[in-house]
């Protein structure tokens, strides 16, 4: 309306194409530094225009808006239906497999968690052990099943089942979760994880093995004193962790273990650095790297992790190959010497 003097109801395909060009390089009157929308100096675009991805997103939004205006008969037609999206490049998904814990560190962390969870009946120490048992269940649920933080936080008991295998082997625990793009998938759950969950449920005064028990797998045992938290967790129905609170539970436990490891001479410095920078999502990567290292088929790893593309899962394979080559190089260097 401002640049071309055309009303929205009169836009043509040529006007839409002109707007696409405008998104590449908005005129100076529409650009400016970031400011409050309430101020008179606010402008809709930053200097330099939109990125190709943002341009394509803007076109899709406008096309959808005009489709709705056409459906409600405000417009006679949708000129954006004849306009192609701006060209974009689909970038490789940056899966940060370097965050995965090495096998030795993962084993040491689990041993440290088990020791912390033992606790005793002394006043205060048993309450602390219960909190450690909550954190251990959360970490194992991600590290042994490859769940995302949100998936683990909202996992429920009624979706965890003991399934018999057609081959006649030992039954396997399986958990159904809803992940990205609202897609359901079923992941295996280790015996160690189920054992940790049982202890966490015992701390809650609940029977983990009760038939058809409907409740979150993991819930807070220590409720903050804020009114919102009290209201959320004060009812008869147990409330699950929020995604951020779940991540905070895990990070807090890892930070305390890192302090403990720092006083031990047998823990390498690089392990301390990695553990200090470990987030909840790192345990999902830990599962991926361990699964590939143990020769689990890549398509099975893809299904468990819920990757839409096998290309994403293959990053774990390339990372394992890289580790193998580096280890081989060090092995040969010890015999052959420099060069």
Describe the fold and architecture.
The protein is mainly α. The protein has 2 domains: 8-82, no CATH class; 100-284, hpI Integrase, Chain A (Orthogonal Bundle), CATH 1.10.443. It contains 12 helices and 3 strands. A 3-stranded antiparallel sheet has the order 1-2-3. The termini are far apart.
Distance between the termini: 70 Å
Q: List low-confidence stretches.
A: none
Strand proportion:
5-15%
Helix content: 40-55%
Task: Count helical runs.
Answer: 12
At the first level of CATH, what is the class of the largest domain?
A: Mainly Alpha
Keywords:
single chain; elongated; hpI Integrase, Chain A; 339 residues; mainly alpha; 12 helices; three-stranded antiparallel beta sheet; 2 domains
Q: How would you summarize the topology of this molecule?
A:
Elements: H1 13-24, H2 52-71, H3 103-118, H4 125-143, H5 149-153, E1 160-163, E2 172-178, E3 184-189, H6 191-203, H7 227-233, H8 243-262, H9 269-276, H10 282-293, H11 298-305, H12 310-336
Antiparallel strand pairs: 1-2, 2-3
């Amino acid at each position: 309306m401002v640049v071309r003097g055309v009303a929205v109801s009169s836009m043509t395909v040529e006007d839409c194409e002109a707007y696409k060009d405008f998104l590449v390089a908005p005129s100076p009157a529409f650009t400016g530094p970031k400011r409050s929308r309430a101020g008179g100096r606010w402008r809709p675009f930053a200097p330099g225009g939109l990125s190709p991805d943002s341009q394509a997103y803007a076109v899709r939004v406008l096309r959808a808006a005009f489709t709705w205006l056409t459906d409600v008969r405000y417009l006679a037609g949708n000129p954006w239906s004849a306009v192609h999206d701006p060209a974009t490049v689909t970038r490789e998904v940056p899966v940060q497999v370097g965050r995965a814990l090495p096998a030795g560190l993962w084993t040491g962390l689990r041993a440290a968690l088990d020791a912390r969870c033992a606790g005793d009946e002394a006043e205060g120490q048993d309450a602390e052990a219960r909190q450690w048992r909550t954190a251990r269940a959360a970490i194992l649920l991600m590290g042994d099943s490859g769940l995302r933080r949100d998936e683990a936080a909202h996992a429920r008991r009624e979706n965890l089942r003991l399934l018999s295998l057609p081959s006649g082997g030992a039954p396997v625990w399986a958990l159904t979760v809803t992940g990205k793009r609202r897609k359901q998938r079923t992941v295996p759950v280790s015996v160690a994880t189920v054992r940790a969950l049982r202890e966490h449920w015992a701390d809650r005064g609940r029977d983990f093995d009760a038939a058809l028990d409907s409740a979150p797998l993991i819930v807070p045992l220590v409720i903050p004193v804020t009114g919102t938290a009290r209201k959320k967790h004060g009812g008869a129905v147990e409330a699950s962790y929020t995604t951020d609170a779940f991540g905070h539970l895990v990070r807090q436990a890892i930070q305390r273990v890192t302090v403990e490891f720092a006083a031990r001479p047998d823990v390498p410095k690089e392990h301390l650095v990695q553990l200090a920078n470990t987030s909840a999502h790192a345990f999902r990567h830990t599962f991926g790297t361990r699964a590939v290292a143990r020769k689990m088929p890549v398509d099975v790893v893809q299904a468990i992790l819920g990757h839409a593309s096998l290309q994403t899962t293959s990053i774990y394979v390339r990372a394992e190959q890289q580790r193998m080559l580096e280890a081989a190089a060090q092995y040969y260097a010890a015999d052959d010497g420099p060069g």
